[in-house]
Amino acid sequence: MNQATEFTVSQISNKLKALVEGEFSYVKIRGEVSGYKLAPSGHAYLSLKDNNAVLAAICWRGTLSKLKIKPEEGMELVCIGTITTYPGQSKYQLIIEQLEHAGIGTLMAMLEKRKAALAKEGLFAAAHKKPLPFLPKKIGIITSPTGAVIKDIIHRIEDRFPSHLIIWPVLVQGEKSAAQVSAAIDGFNKLQDKPDLIIVARGGGSVEDLWPFNEEIVVRSAFNSKIPLISAIGHETDYTLLDLVADLRAPTPTAAAEKAVPVLTNVLASVENVFKRIEFSLSKYFEERKNKLRMLEKSLPNYQTILLNFIQRLDDQSMRFVNSKNRYFELRLNRVNTLRLRLKHPNDIIKMAEQRFLQSSNRLHRSAENYYNAQEQRFKLASSLLNSYSYKKTLSRGFAILTDSKSNALTSASQAKTGEKLTAELNDGKINLTIN
């Protein structure tokens, strides 16, 4: 007859529970997270698997909130806790109390996976990079309020180009860091008086220390920022996902400050150089204008030459008139003689000739008078034109010409130097001046 001990279902379940929990009250189990679910109650349910087996696991809400590492699908972890049974389903499971990364290789593999997923969305594309302002009036700094990082940034900006700084203090490592950094980026973008530039900075550290800056929440806040953002996380060899999405990555916090603002002395030197180039260009322009004016002045004919030409033309016309007059009388006389010879009665011929002579003389007198009047009008017009071209006419209206000791005319007030002796030519003479 079988002497086996008889148990109820509850009894055997409780004995198994006590046996398992007694034997495996503290274990460390390494495995890949699978089927991760967060229940409405706040408890997390998941499985740990390897190539040959699967182990159910649960992390209570109170424990989950205290963990530095949050479980994610596909993450390889070392889970520390207690093996227990669940009588309601006749299964055993791990109650998680602590979590550790299974190694740096696991972290890097998870980082590469996340990087590839975000890159596929275009978050790291160069087309989304915003240009940095040349002279930001206001700079927002997201970092720890204590330590060397914030001091280095402040001192470097003050040395290069003092600007208004707004510091948003955050934790730069630990489980709350990512949420605080993300909130700070979003907060700066929501301000009414926004900064022109944001710097997110942290000193060096291990991969675990820098992990908050690889979190998706931080990367997406940086991508959505309307304000240009510089990342300065860790040392020069450290790279995070924030560096990839930022508009500019600085190898160190000090380098971020240097990229944020230019050197004031260099800016002043550049401005001074621009002013010198403008001054040189204006000086060259006015010198060219002055030379061109001098050439135009030389191309104008001398008034004496113009007047002599008119006088010569008048003399020529007068001589031609005299010759014409003499010739005319000579022809008339010949004609009279011819007619006198042809006429039978000399008195009649003489009378007719005298009549024609008087008519011709009157026409000649009128013609000569009209010609002389026309020549006189042309002469007056030429004299008036010559007088209007003369600079003496300008002097008579109250203007003066200033010349330096080398008799060079001054065209600009900037040419006069203090203490220099000048000569002012007026309508009725010259006077000497000294510039005070």
Features:
436 residues, alpha/beta, OB fold (Dihydrolipoamide Acetyltransferase, E2P), Rossmann fold, 5-stranded mixed barrel, 5-stranded parallel beta sheet, 13 helices, 13 strands
Termini separation: 137 Å
Unreliable stretches covering 5 or more consecutive residues: none
Rg calculated over all Cα atoms: 54 Å
Shape: rod-shaped
Tell me the helix content: 40-55%
CATH homologous superfamily heading of the largest domain: Succinyl-CoA synthetase domains
How do the SSEs run, as a string of H and E? Answer: HEEEHEEHEHEHEHHEHEHHHHHEEE
In short:
With 436 residues, the chain is of the alpha/beta class. The chain has helices at 9-23, 61-64, 104-120, 148-160, 177-190, 207-210, 216-224, 241-245, 253-260, 264-299, 303-342, 346-389, 391-396, and strands at residues 27-38, 44-49, 54-59, 76-86, 91-101, 138-143, 164-169, 197-202, 229-233, 248-249, 401-403, 421-426, 429-434.
Per-chain topology:
Layout: H1 9-23, E1 27-38, E2 44-49, E3 54-59, H2 61-64, E4 76-86, E5 91-101, H3 104-120, E6 138-143, H4 148-160, E7 164-169, H5 177-190, E8 197-202, H6 207-210, H7 216-224, E9 229-233, H8 241-245, E10 248-249, H9 253-260, H10 264-299, H11 303-342, H12 346-389, H13 391-396, E11 401-403, E12 421-426, E13 429-434
Parallel strand pairs: 3-5, 6-7, 6-8, 8-9, 9-10
Antiparallel strand pairs: 1-2, 1-4, 2-3, 4-5, 11-12, 12-13
Structural commentary:
The chain has four domains: 9-102, Nucleic acid-binding proteins (OB fold (Dihydrolipoamide Acetyltransferase, E2P), Beta Barrel), CATH 2.40.50; 126-262, Succinyl-CoA synthetase domains (Rossmann fold), CATH 3.40.50; 303-388; 401-434, no CATH class. Helices cover 49% and strands 20% of the residues. The strands form three sheets. Strands 1-2-3-5-4 form a five-stranded mixed β-barrel. Strands 7-6-8-9-10 form a five-stranded parallel sheet, sandwiched between helices. The chain is α/β, with parallel strands linked by helices and 436 residues long. The termini are far apart.
